[in-house]
Amino acid sequence: MRALITGATSGIGLAFAQILAKQGFSLVLASRNTEKMKQLQKKLPTQVEIMTVDLSCVSDCYRLHTAMQGKQIDIVINNAGFGVYGNFTKTDLSQELNMLDLNVRAVHILTKLFLQDFVQRDYGYILNVASSAGFFAGPLMASYYAGKNYVLRLTEAIHQELQQTGSRVQIAALCPGPVETAFYARAHHAPLHGISAKQAALAGLKGIFSGKCIILPDTATKAIYVLQRFLPEAMLLHLTYTIQKRKEG
Asked: Among 36, 41, 74, 227, fewest CB within 10 Å belongs to which?
């Protein structure tokens, strides 16, 4: 079996690559960082193909899909992404748009293109890495939260469509809370204590292969998912702002 992983050179993406390699999957790694992919290629105990792409560019999303034709991809993991922290009036617009191109538009394009392939052959798995941020609006990370809401709701809707048609294709959204990765450094706010990238990746793979739609990798995230269904929106907004404000380092 062969897995395509975007953003596989660090964090959850790296954990996915390490776990799947040990399970005997062949891998295709897609990232902008050629050197890191080459280093990882040497370390993983499986066949690894690398493809240098900037998935914030539409043309590279199509180029990646075209390059995978005939390679029998069994699972696509849309993991690449980053966050932007700060008051919406002060964050850099070009950086936010680049983030949305990667976190939202690339996920949309790759999901659609590979899903069409998978539905045609009635087999395949797509795992979109969303976030518990997808459950809320997110003051001080407004664009990031909005993008993860999009990924989560898109995935849920497609999952229902597949069920209604009796398709064997599976799609799921992995929604972790804080994960101990370099994400927070790139978002320019203080890190949070969370689960390991390996724990998040293991939960994601277990969930997608068991047919789940929304994958909550730990007890805290499950509690948050339940809690947000009962609290008033105004209270959730205030709590989220307070939590985000405390991250300023």
From this structure: 227
Q: Tens digits of per-residue pLDDT, 82-132?
A: 999 999 999 999 999 999 999 999 999 999 999 999 999 999 999 999 999
- Which fold, 2-246? Rossmann fold (3.40.50)
Q: C-alpha 46: how far from its chain's center? A: 23
Residue 237 predicted with pLDDT over 90:
no
Token reading at 140:
């001080």
Angle at 27 between CA 152 and CA 38, to 5 degrees: 110
Establish whether 144 is a catalytic residue: yes
Question: By three-state DSSP, how is residue 248 classified?
Answer: coil
Per DSSP, the three-state class of 1 is coil
Tell me the pTM.
0.92
Beta partners for 127?
A: 77, 172
Active-site position among 144, 145, 150, 184: 144
What does the alpha-carbon distance between residue 179 and residue 81 come to, in Å, rounded to a whole number?
14
For residues 43 and 18, what is the distance between their CA atoms, to the nearest angstrom?
Answer: 9
For residue 134, the 8-state DSSP code is G
Residue with tokens 């709701």: 153
Tokens of 114: 């590979």
**Gap between the Cα atoms of 62 and 48, Å rounded:** 21
The H-assigned helical ranges of the chain are: 11-22, 34-43, 58-67, 93-100, 106-121, 142-165, 183-187, 197-209, 219-227, 233-246
The model's pLDDT over 4-61, given as tens digits with 9 standing for 90+, comes to 999 999 999 999 999 999 999 999 999 999 999 999 999 999 999 999 999 999 999 9
